[in-house]
Amino acid sequence: MTNITQQRKIVTEVPGPRSRELHARTTRAVSAGVGIGFAAYIERAGGGLLTDVDGNELIDLGAGIAVTTVGNAAPRVVQRVQQQVADFTHTCFMVNPYEEYVDVCEALNELTPGDHEKRSALFNSGAEAVENAVKVARSYTGRDAVIAFDHAYHGRTNLTMALTAKSQPYKQGFGPFAGEIYRAPMAYPYRWAGGPEACAEEAFSTFVAQVHTQVGEQNVAAVVLEPIQGEGGFIVPPPGFLGALAEWCTRNGIVFVADEVQTGFCRTGDWFACDHEDIVPDIITTAKGIAGGLPLSAVTGRAEIMDGVQSGGLGGTYGGNPIACAAALGAIETMREDDLVGRAREIGDILSLRLGELAERFPVVGEARGRGAMQAIELIAGGDDHSPNAALTKAVSAYAQTEGVVTLTCGTYGNVIRFLPPLDITDDLLHEGLDVVAAGLEKLA
Ligand SMILES: *Cc1c(COP(=O)(O)O)cnc(C)c1O
């Protein structure tokens, strides 16, 4: 456990003078294209706290975008990484293989949904995993088309930019994009024209009709979907939508790819978000929470699909680096032994309760939604006017930051505040962080 006392502490303006000094250097040294949401520079972290360079202790409700799910500098991760870095740092698995890579693949094959025969391959980032899932699906099916959804986020490489829905800032000026990517409407209950009750069925029938008329099922290699959309606004599809899609894919010989880069590894109160409705995807992509902060990602899928690729067709210099693998083994051990699925559910109960209260108390909170330790509030103009309120979202988030609570925003319309705490946060810190957000709404709404 961390030796940082689990208490929010503000000793300077946030960001403070040391952070501001560093930020001036950042402006001169780092590309302006790398946007920084909150310029408090961090020097230590553990539990629910980030310690900045001015000595402020900030409550972490973002976990580095759902990455430090097991906690920052989690003991089992640190121990395994230290051992591995002293043993050897790199060989390239395809040149001289090592056991840790195999251990991670075995764990993924066991933990991901479905008890069929599986294979995995390891990469460095979420985007790289999604790209490789598309490569595998195209190779296996001999087809080109890929269907992605409104509000989707799958990364920033050329192919994944094409899959990602939102133009600003992710795609603006970066085209042309990869071809044969088609977009379908997402089952977004809160904003579904026919109302939330009709959403699952109408979204699915629209999907089927659009693919049939605009693409042709016989041309589709893969359908790629986040089982709860992350960057797009923590959109939870209504029950039945995912299952209907998965079943339709099977019927049409299409590879169903669940992008669980953000939802995976205990985040939603299950090992994977697909588990909630017993959905078994053909391929699942993982990254973020997999290795306690070290860069690692994976593609796991049905053996016949994953083995359909020619030898040498998948890989890369660093994919499945031994230190990242050691970190993943430490993270997975922590999730198992500390029952982080259970802890994510406990955190989920607190979040549901507190965010639900905000939705009742403030007319500008249109909806509270999400699952487990992945929940959010969507801010609107107020009452019956559901117009997205991006300005208030920005203001409340900025207020929380200056009060020492790190929050993240998201959403196609920039009007969602998302909560992704590390699972080793204390209940007290979580409540305190939410109190600050509530105070921000009180003050600014
Ligand atoms: C973050 C994210 C990605 C991209 O991961 P990177 O590691 O940033 O490349 C892909 N898919 C989803 C669902 C994500 O949340």
Automatic annotation (TrEMBL):
The keyword Transferase applies. Its cofactor is pyridoxal 5'-phosphate. Signal peptide: none annotated. GO terms for biological process: gamma-aminobutyric acid metabolic process. Pathway: Amino-acid degradation; 4-aminobutanoate degradation. Belongs to the class-III pyridoxal-phosphate-dependent aminotransferase family. NCBIfam families: GABAtrnsam, PRK06058.1. Keywords: Aminotransferase, Pyridoxal phosphate, Transferase. PANTHER family: AMINOTRANSFERASE CLASS III, LEUCINE_METHIONINE RACEMASE. Pfam families: Aminotran_3. GO terms for molecular function: (S)-3-amino-2-methylpropionate transaminase activity; 4-aminobutyrate:2-oxoglutarate transaminase activity; identical protein binding; pyridoxal phosphate binding. This is (S)-3-amino-2-methylpropionate transaminase. Its EC number is 2.6.1.19, 2.6.1.22. CDD domains: OAT_like (cd00610). InterPro entries: 4NH2But_aminotransferase_bac (IPR004632), Aminotrans_3 (IPR005814), Aminotrans_3_PPA_site (IPR049704), Class-III_PLP-dep_AT (IPR050103), PyrdxlP-dep_Trfase (IPR015424), PyrdxlP-dep_Trfase_major (IPR015421), PyrdxlP-dep_Trfase_small (IPR015422). It catalyses: (S)-3-amino-2-methylpropanoate + 2-oxoglutarate = 2-methyl-3-oxopropanoate + L-glutamate; 4-aminobutanoate + 2-oxoglutarate = succinate semialdehyde + L-glutamate.
